[in-house]
Amino acid sequence: MGVPLAWLVRHQDLRLRVLAGHGDLDREVVWAHSIELTDPAPWLNGGELVLTTGLRLAETGADCAEYVGRLVKAGVAALGFGVGLSHDQVPPALVEAASDAGLPLLEVPLPTPFVAVTKAVMERLAEQQYEGVVQASRVQPRMTRAALHGGAQAVVRELATSTGTSVVLLDHENKVRASHPPGAGVPETAVPEGMRASERTAAAVSTGGDGAVAVQQVRVGPRAHGRLVLTADRTLTPVDHLLLGHAASLVALEAEKPLRLRDEQNRVNALFLRMLLDGGVGAPAALDHLTEAGFPVREGIRVLALRGSSPRRILEAVGNELAERGLPLFGRGRAGCATVLLPAGHVVTAQTVTDGVRARLRSPVWAGLSAAHDLADAPAALTEALNSCSAAETRGASDVVPFESLAGRLLAAVPETRRILVTLAETQLAPLAAYDEQHGTDLLVSLRTFLEHNGQWAPASAALGVHRHTLSARMERVRGLLGVDLDSAHVRAELLLALSVWREPGGTVGNG
Fold it and tell me: Given strand 203-208, what is the order of strands in its sheet?
């Protein structure tokens, strides 16, 4: 934003006269700078009106041409020459050099002090800034009303109309979600390199001979909803940037409204799932709640356990996958896994969900799936899913490992043998559970991992994310608490069977 030379020339109090560059008076002056050096370029940034009396300027054609050439190279907007002091008139050689270079040259008469020119430029710049603030204050309420009544498309239209630019809203896959004028697009080459290089870049601007492109992230906290791209055939003003940022905030809030409601519902669902998996809610009440939430349970439920990233990130990805398929999320973190309730016999399969999560997170994810259960057997489904997930991680399986595929599952499924295993679990594992609860340790989890990795120290410690010496110390503590020989295959097998029916936390076990 600057002061047009034409406006400055029309300022009657200054009585400026154009001697060269009559066709370039649309240039904008960003500052007026008085300097008498023969080479002022090192002190210029471009866009200035350079004011001089020619005190040190020789009047030869070569000297004037060199002086004008240095100004043009520095990108000045125009040259103002004060007459009546060191020169009675502007040297003809300077007028000729300015004309040849296309540099506007203004004659400043003796009665007009340079400070008056500088003051006029400063005051006009201040007026333009105030006008910009007034313009933005008028546009922002219109843009907010547009967001309330027409959503993102209305915001994009208002931004484009108010700034006289082209605006496009892109999603995270660079697909056009809204645009104005209708059908407007964004060539890939028009997106600033800094924005393409990092999805975390908040904003970027690219300028060239054809105009400018500004890109603004549409983001709330860590969640990005896309990018607003504003394209203009001119230099962008501070008002343009201000309105672009306001529009990005409105679009982000518009996108967040359903997500905020969904997040809140997910928190309620997570609390319900915790009660269901802990046996704290009866089957009739659970059936009513799930049915009202739009979760089909006619053919029973399954529990899907996933491990590989943080449970929070996995649950967020699972929630998005289920939302796209019209299902609510019932999920929570448990034993380092994300545990999710799925309807048995539904078209949304555990493998589909897991593949979608892997694609979203771009990282390995291991998954285990319980057998189909009635709502009353949800705690048993949790145990099965966690065991299956551990098996999937041990195998490095890309496919979901169903509990039905695990050897020895019939022992825990048959009521007679299950009662024996429950008694075994209460006898063998209760001391470890009590110790973990009192001391905040992970002996039960460590023992399960150690046994599921066949007593091999390196893979077991890697699965737990601890040093093998740490795992060894934990197993020594287990030996002392249980009074057993973990080197014995029979002891390890018995403990593994006990763990197959153990349900954390608090030393309670699954139903027989």
Answer: 176-180, 166-170, 223-232, 211-220, 203-208
Note the pLDDT tens digit of each residue in 342-354.
988 776 788 989 9
What pTM value is reported for the model? 0.41
Residue 33 β-bridge partners: 50
Q: How many angstroms separate the CA atoms of 397 and 400, rounded?
A: 7
* Residue of 123, 94, 118 lying closest to 34 (CA atoms): 118
| Cβ–Cβ under 8 Å, residues 341 and 328 | no
Residue 350 is which amino acid?
A: A
Helices (H), 278-397: 283-292, 311-324, 350-361, 378-395
Question: How many other CB atoms are found less than 10 A from the CB of residue 140?
Answer: 17
CB-based contact 290:297 (threshold 8 Å): yes
Contact 314, 252 (CB under 8 A): no
> Quick one: DSSP state of residue 509?
B
Confirm if 305 and 337 have CB atoms less than 8 A apart: yes
In eight-state DSSP terms, residue 370 is: P
How far apart are alpha carbons 70 and 82 in whole angstroms? Answer: 19
- Render pLDDT for 273-315 as a digit per residue (tens, 0 to 9): 888 888 888 888 888 888 877 788 888 899 999 998 889 999 9
Query: Which of these, 383, 354, 369, 371, lies nearest to 277 by C-alpha position?
Result: 383
Q: How many CA atoms lie within 13 A of 62 on its CB side?
A: 0
Dist. CA 374–CA 276, nearest whole Å: 12
User: To 5 degrees, how large is the angle CA 469–CA 475–CA 477?
Assistant: 110
pLDDT of 100: 93
CB atoms within 10 A of CB 34: 17
**Three-state SS annotation for 171-226:** CCCCCEEEEECCCCCCCHHHCCHHHHHCCCCCEEEEEECCEEEEEEEEEECCEEEE
State the Cα–Cα distance between residues 498 and 512, nearest whole angstrom.
Answer: 13
